[in-house]
Design brief:
Blueprint: H1 4-27, H2 32-40, H3 60-70, H4 79-100, H5 102-122, H6 132-135, H7 138-152, H8 165-168, H9 171-193, H10 201-213
Helix pairs in contact: 1-2, 1-3, 1-4, 1-9, 1-10, 3-10, 4-9, 5-7, 7-9
Length: 216
């Protein structure tokens, strides 16, 4: 039996990552709460339930994006929604490829474990929900962005991010985008762990939309 709650939460996290990547790429700004909730998830390495990883009230942006991406026909979708949906689907493919490469996957896991120890030592309250000021720091974006750049970028086809040149050339924005791409991969891996598959999206679309609608 499908775990619609867990699948929808993981998808909301994925889409939330993509909305913030698109926002940074086009404006240079982002939603502090939306970003903190998905960056925080990167160092939740031993969760008991999905609620240890994500707080549903912090994923409203992602739930809304699910409704926009899956709840409307192609003709009525805004241009940003089309870009975000395509990005999410590309991240699903990328995460699948990462999982299939044991060497890369194990190295990524080891690096995240090391970052978890370092971050929680320096910031014991990092994992407290809603602690945006501790999570959304340039140092953390640099750490996670560098991990993506050193492990994912050299081994897989690059995801092309479109936006305003003035935003994309800013190093700090590049690091935020890479950190969010890593968080998106984390969301997809979780989605697959709870039974999500791209081929099932059509059959579970109605239930996923109903769950997302109830949480916006």
């Amino acid at each position: 039996m499908a775990d619609i709650k867990s699948e929808t939460i993981a998808l909301a996290a994925l889409f939330q990552c993509c909305t913030q990547i698109q926002r940074i790429a086009t404006t240079g700004y982002f939603d502090e709460r939306a970003v903190a909730s998905v960056i925080r998830s990167l160092i939740v390495t031993d969760p008991k339930t999905i609620d240890d990883i994500y707080q549903e009230s912090d994923l409203v942006v992602g739930f809304k994006q699910i409704l926009d991406s899956f709840g409307k026909g192609d003709m009525s979708k805004a241009a940003d929604t089309i870009v975000i949906t395509k990005m999410a689907l590309k991240l699903i493919t990328l995460a699948h490829n990462v999982e299939g490469n044991d060497k890369v996957f194990n190295r990524m896991s080891d690096e995240i474990d090391a970052l978890t120890r370092a971050i929680t030592t320096d910031h014991p309250d990092f994992l407290t929900y809603g602690n945006t000021q501790v999570v959304n720091t340039e140092e953390n974006f640099h750490l996670f962005g560098s991990l993506y750049q050193s492990i994912i970028s050299p081994n897989f086809a690059k995801l092309i991010i479109y936006g305003e040149e003035r935003c994309l050339r800013e190093v700090s924005n590049q690091e935020k985008i890479r950190a969010l791409l890593l968080a998106g991969i984390r969301a997809v891996i979780l989605w697959r762990q709870v039974g999500g598959r791209r081929r099932f999206l059509v059959f579970r679309r109605k239930a996923i939309l109903e769950y997302a609608r109830a949480h916006v």
